[in-house]
Amino acid sequence: VNVDDWKAHTTYIGNDCDPQVIEWFWDVVTDFTTEQRARLLQFTTGSARVPVQGFKTLTMNDGRICLFAIQGIRKEECLYPRAHTCFNRLDLPMYSSKKDLETALTMVIKMEVTGFTIE
């Protein structure tokens, strides 16, 4: 998983996206092992593999292009990152430290996929 390509083809949603937290996110992803990056990609998109032509061709389940997106959310809304795999979107709480963000991301990628909810 090429982090530079992933980052270059990511959109950011909402007024709650703190640039510092976004920087921490990419620092953590860069420091992840190849397996951890694949698990994060699986958690957020439903697939552990990048499309052949890279993140610019990431699609929804109906085949339409849908770039990876990070939506900043308040920690009061949800303490842990939350994925919307149909939309390739990660709801990322705005943590107060890089360590808290790393701990939360590591926890969610270690969990097994056990179900889903409808938005």
TrEMBL record:
Q: What is its EC number?
A: 2.3.2.26
What keywords appear on the UniProt entry? Transferase, Ubl conjugation pathway
Biological pathway: Protein modification; protein ubiquitination
Q: Does the keyword Transferase apply?
A: yes
Q: Which ranges carry the HECT domain?
A: 1-119
State the active site: 86 (glycyl thioester intermediate)
Q: Which reaction is recorded as catalysed by this protein?
A: S-ubiquitinyl-[E2 ubiquitin-conjugating enzyme]-L-cysteine + [acceptor protein]-L-lysine = [E2 ubiquitin-conjugating enzyme]-L-cysteine + N(6)-ubiquitinyl-[acceptor protein]-L-lysine
Question: What EC class does the entry list?
Answer: transferase
GO MF terms listed in the record are: ubiquitin protein ligase activity
One GO CC annotation = cytoplasm
Q: Which GO terms describe its biological process?
A: protein ubiquitination; ubiquitin-dependent protein catabolic process
What the entry lists under PANTHER family is as follows: E3 UBIQUITIN-PROTEIN LIGASE NEDD-4, HECT DOMAIN UBIQUITIN-PROTEIN LIGASE
Protein name stated in the entry: HECT-type E3 ubiquitin transferase
Query: What is the species listed in this Swiss-Prot or TrEMBL entry?
Result: Aphanomyces astaci
